[in-house]
Amino acid sequence: MASNLMTKTASAKRSNSVRLKPEEKGTKRKKRNGFSIFGLLEKYTNVNALFEEGVPLKYLPRILFLTLLTLFYIGNTHYAEKTVRKIEKVKTDTEDLRADYTTLKSDYMSASKQSEVARNVAPLGLEESSTPPYQVVVPADEY
User: Is a pLDDT exceeding 80 seen at residue 113?
Assistant: First the structure.
């Protein structure tokens, strides 16, 4: 017997054991007509032969590795979908902010025109100068 199998020991008082099914001669099972993936797997793989003597521990590291790899794959998929949802939300927020910026910029540009400024300060008693500005020249030795 292989050393890497879990089997019942002689010191155990009670344990589970494999029951042998009695052969029933008179009754036959009806076979369904149809396609079944599990039927094909049972037909072409001999999984029952692996467990006749107990649980084969030599496959346990591979099974655990594949299980962890599958869990990592599923978690990574969920993380990627969550990230995509966040990106889409940020894109919509950015588009809203860009629209607000464009609106405020056009309002500011129209409000800062000379004619608009003159119209807005007229109630305060300020008016636009009709004489052009002139430059004051101060000699260097005066200051």
Answer: yes
Q: Tokens in use for 100?
A: 């607000």
Over residues 5-13, the mean pLDDT reads 58
Does residue 39 register a pLDDT over 90? no
pTM: 0.47
CA atoms within 13 A on the CB side of 26: 0
Q: Say how far apart CA 82 and CA 67 lie, in whole Å.
A: 23
Please work out, in degrees rounded to the nearest 5, the angle formed at the alpha carbon of residue 24 by the alpha carbons of 26 and 50. 145
Q: What are phi and psi of 7, to 5 degrees?
A: -130, 170
Those residues whose C-beta lies under 8 Å from the C-beta of residue 55, and which sit 6 or more positions away, are: 5, 6
Burial class (CB in 10 A: 0-12, 13-18, 19+), 54: middle
